[in-house]
Design brief:
There is one protein chain. The protein is 31% helix and 30% strand. Strands 1, 2, 3, 4, 5, 6, 7, 8 and 9 form a nine-stranded mixed β-sheet that branches. The chain has a four-stranded mixed β-sheet with strand order 10-11-12-13, with helices on both faces. Helix 8 packs across helix 9 and helix 10 packs across helix 11. The chain folds into two domains: 215 residues, no CATH class; 162 residues, Nutrient germinant receptor protein C, domain 3 (GMP Synthetase, Chain A, domain 3, 2-Layer Sandwich). By secondary structure, the protein is an alpha/beta fold. Strand 1 and strand 2 form a beta hairpin. It contains twelve helices and 13 strands.
C-alpha cells in the first residue's frame, strides 16, 4: 500500500510539468516588432513607430520569393510614456505587439538631447521581460526615428537587418563604429568612471522616396541609410558627436578595432601606401606621478600592405621598418586627437576612470565626484608598435617595369 501511495504522489507532482501550453501564443495572433523608432512631437508626447514584419512577403528559402507586397508595415502611436504609446497602438494593430524579436531601437537626436528622456525610455524597455536588452541602440542624426524605421532597403529585405548588419560590417572593416546594445548603454550610464557612446545613423538622399516601393525597383536608390559618427552621452544626454578618424581613435582605445585602412605618404606622394590591420590589441594601464594618475595606452598592431601607389621595394627590411614607424605615428596621432576631443567635452568615454578605480580604489574615492573635470586635464600617453607581416601577392607594383610610369 505504501508503495502505491509513493507512486500516486510522484504522478501528482508531475502533473504541473505536463501543462506546457498554459501560456501559449498563436503566431497568427502576434505582430513581431523588429524595430522601434522614438520621436517627440510638438505636443510633448512620444511618437513611437513600430516596424512590424509582414511574414508572407519575406522570402523563407532559396526557392521561395515571398509575397508581392512590402516586407514590413509601420504603425505609429503616441503617448506620454513609451508604455502608453505601445498600449495606444493596439487601436491600430489587429495583433498583439510582440517584442522578443526586436533587434533595433532608434531614438531621435531631439529626444536624446532632452534631459532624462533617454533614461526614462531605457527604464521602460529594461523592465519589460519580453524585451531583450541585447537590442542594438542608435540615434537618428539629422533625421527622425520614424524616417529610419520606415526606409526600405534593397540588399536586405528587412530594413532592420540593414542597420544591424551594417554596424557589424563597419566595426569589422572600417573601425569608426561599434555595436552598442541597450545593456552597453545602461552600464555606461551607471558607471562613475565611464560615459556611454551610441552609434549615429542618418537617412541620406530624397527622404520622401525612402518609404516608397519604387525605392526597391532601381539599382541605385534615391534614399539610403548610413552610419554616421559616435554620439557622446553625458549625464544621460547627448552633448556632441565624434566623427571620422577621431571616431576611429575612440574604437582603437576601447580595443574594438578589428580592421581598417591606414594610409600614409611615401616619397612625397600623398596617400602613397595603405596598410590594413589583421590583428590589433589595446591595453590601458594607470601609473601614478606625484600622487596623480597618468594613463598609458599601448597598442600592438599587425597588418599587411594592401596598396602601393608609388615605386617601392617591399623586400627591403629598412623600407619596411620605415613604413611601420609611419603607421605607428599615424595611429598615435588619431588616438591622441580622439582623447583631446573627449577632454574638451569633459566626458570620459574611454573608461579611464574605471581603470583608476581598479588600480587605486583609495585615490578613486577622492576623484570620483569630479572625475570628468579631472579627466579634462589628465595626462595620456600613447605607444604604438606596428608590424607589417605581409606585402600582398607581390613585392613591387606591377607597373614598376613600365617605361611610361
Amino acid at each position: 500500500m505504501k508503495k502505491w501511495l509513493i507512486i500516486l504522489l510522484a504522478l501528482t507532482m508531475t502533473v504541473p510539468l505536463l501543462s506546457a501550453c498554459w501560456n501559449q501564443k498563436e503566431l497568427t495572433d502576434l505582430a513581431f516588432v523588429l524595430a522601434l523608432g522614438i520621436d517627440k512631437g510638438e505636443d510633448d508626447m512620444y511618437h513611437v513607430s513600430f516596424q512590424i514584419v509582414n511574414p508572407g512577403n519575406v522570402s523563407t528559402g532559396q526557392g521561395g520569393g515571398g509575397g508581392q507586397g512590402l516586407p514590413i508595415a509601420v504603425y505609429k502611436s503616441t503617448g506620454r510614456t513609451i508604455t502608453e504609446a505601445a498600449r495606444n497602438a493596439t487601436k491600430k494593430v489587429s495583433r498583439r505587439l510582440y517584442y522578443a524579436h526586436t533587434n533595433l531601437v532608434v531614438v531621435s537626436e531631439e529626444v536624446a538631447k532632452e534631459k532624462n528622456s533617454l533614461l526614462h525610455i531605457m527604464d521602460g524597455l529594461d523592465r519589460d521581460p519580453e524585451f531583450r536588452t541585447t537590442t542594438e541602440l542608435v540615434i537618428a542624426r539629422d533625421s527622425t526615428a520614424e524616417e529610419l524605421v520606415t526606409t526600405l532597403t534593397i540588399l536586405d529585405k528587412l530594413p532592420v537587418m540593414k542597420i544591424t548588419k551594417e554596424i557589424k560590417a563597419t566595426e569589422a572593416m572600417l573601425g569608426e563604429n561599434m555595436s552598442v546594445t541597450i545593456d552597453d548603454f545602461m552600464n555606461g550610464i551607471i558607471s562613475t568612471g565611464k560615459e556611454p557612446i551610441v552609434n549615429g545613423y542618418r537617412l541620406v538622399g530624397i527622404k520622401e522616396k525612402a518609404r516608397l516601393a519604387e525605392n526597391l525597383q532601381t539599382t541605385t536608390t534615391d534614399a539610403f541609410l548610413a552610419a554616421d559618427g559616435l554620439a557622446v552621452i553625458k549625464d544621460g544626454e547627448l552633448i556632441d558627436w565624434i566623427e571620422s578618424n577621431k571616431a576611429r581613435g575612440v574604437i582603437w582605445v576601447l580595443d574594438k578595432a578589428k580592421s581598417t585602412d591606414i594610409t600614409i605618404s611615401w616619397n612625397g606622394k600623398k596617400n602613397g601606401l595603405s596598410m590594413v590591420p589583421i590583428r590589433s590589441k589595446t591595453k590601458v594601464a594607470t601609473a601614478f606621478k606625484n600622487g596623480k594618475p597618468i594613463i598609458n595606452i599601448s597598442i600592438e598592431n599587425e597588418g599587411w600592405i594592401s596598396e602601393a601607389n608609388t615605386a617601392i621595394d617591399l623586400t627591403d627590411p629598412k623600407i619596411m621598418e620605415k613604413i611601420q614607424k609611419l603607421v605607428e605615428r599615424k595611429i598615435e596621432k588619431e588616438v591622441l586627437s580622439s582623447v583631446k576631443e573627449a577632454q574638451k567635452l569633459r566626458c570620459d568615454i574611454f573608461g579611464f576612470g574605471e581603470n583608476v578605480h581598479k588600480t587605486n580604489p583609495k585615490l578613486w574615492k577622492k576623484l570620483e565626484s569630479n572625475w570628468n573635470d579631472y579627466f579634462a586635464d589628465l595626462e595620456v600617453n600613447v605607444k604604438v608598435d606596428s608590424y607589417a607581416r605581409r606585402e600582398g601577392v607581390r613585392t613591387k607594383p606591377f607597373w614598376s617595369v613600365l617605361k611610361f610610369k
